[in-house]
Amino acid sequence: MKSTSLSLIAGAVALAAVTGFAAVTAPDGGGTTTAKAATRLPVERSSLLCPAPGLSDLAETEYTSFTPAAKSGAAAEPAGTAELLSTAVKGVAKDTAKDKDKKTGKADPDKPVVLLKEPGKPATAEVSGADAPALVGTATGRLAPGWTAQQTTTVEAGDSRGLLGVGCTVPDTDFWFPAASTAKSREDYVHLTNPDDTAAVADIELYGPEGPLKSEVGEDITVPARSGIRVLISTLTNKAEDDVTVHVTTRNGRVGAVVRTADDKSGSDWLAASTEPAGTLVLPGIPADATSVRLVAFAPGEDDADLTVKLLGKTGAISPAGHEELHVKSQMTAGVDLKALTRGEPGSLLLTPQEGKATPVVAALRVVRGKGDKQEVGYIPATGPVGAQATAADNRAKGSVLSLTAPGTAGTVKVTASAGSKGGTPVSKTYKVAAGTTLAVAPPVPAGLKGTYALTVETQSGGPVHAARTLTVPMDGIPMFTVQTLPDDRGTVEVPAAEQDLSVLDD
Fold this sequence. Notes:
Largest sheet: 5 strands, antiparallel
């Protein structure tokens, strides 16, 4: 019985390295168990899901898969694998690592679309057309800690025009998407991807400015095993609303969820999920030349939320004139047009509770650059800090901007540019972010870069620091762009150590 206690502890530690389980308790068998300070161990398995990228025959999608190189002195991990697989036998894939123009034909669900072979060097692939499938992926061994994948789609013309970027998501059971819409000028889809071998069942709830939007067809949505589906949210209600919060939950199984938006005037992009409801939220990375910024917030609980709105700029925090405060009624979506908020300087938005109770909220920004028929849209959801480490893949020699903001105390981060996908030497640089400010920089570029590269941000001291990467690809006078936030990649988990007096154990 006492030997079994040791086995249970060892099993729990192994489980923690895979799932994030962080509490180990030994059954009382007469021995003495003393808790020690928790240690951090690398995860042994990671999962990512990429939505079906295109609704346009003109869509060209680039995937980048990347795992940061292990820190010097880290324990050796098994080699492992990291692969993104098609969920359906359709789409045309091109392996850019071998031949950018070579057609490899229909995507084989048993053959990886993207295969990552080593940490520290990105692997890339391209997919063309409207029929490109969703992808499901798993990384194990030394490729699992910090594994990330980026999906970037370019559509040069049509209703889906734009540069659409999204970090492939971790499967979960609960997602919040403020800043969606059912307006007639919008065409927003919820994309659901199921990584498992059994069907998942999801519910989609919609909340407008006056509360829940009733819908019977948003319940019991089946997502077949290892498949992706998309749902046009305007078909779930008969009300056209400019600002809608989408809530995705699962009754059975788990999914990856993301919203693809399209607007008649400003193009299209992906809207990633907001961080979980919290009293204080940070939305980093508003471009300096934003011509319109719209804040959308939602309070999912039973209480209203009263928020203070601050823009964290280059030199400090300011209150947007006329929008210093925001009242968010319970179960109702609140939207406010902050217009040209940044006034030519990059910044980040900080939402904090006013005096009194901190009511949990979710939030996102709809950001427009350009004017007239040269507009382009992007979205910035509220996000958590970079924590120990966070990564943005698919950076180019030109066009990337890294925004770092310290909403509380000053923080110092180390930014590492990886080797290029086709060649180049990693470089690192350290940045100090002053308290209450946003620092926007052109990030370091690998020496001798060929192909694309990844940026990894690590907290060195102070903070917390929040980050976002903006990628801009100008086309025909349109500042096509997309913004991805960089929350902690959860590449390690805390595992408490235990010390047991073995002298009292039986032989």
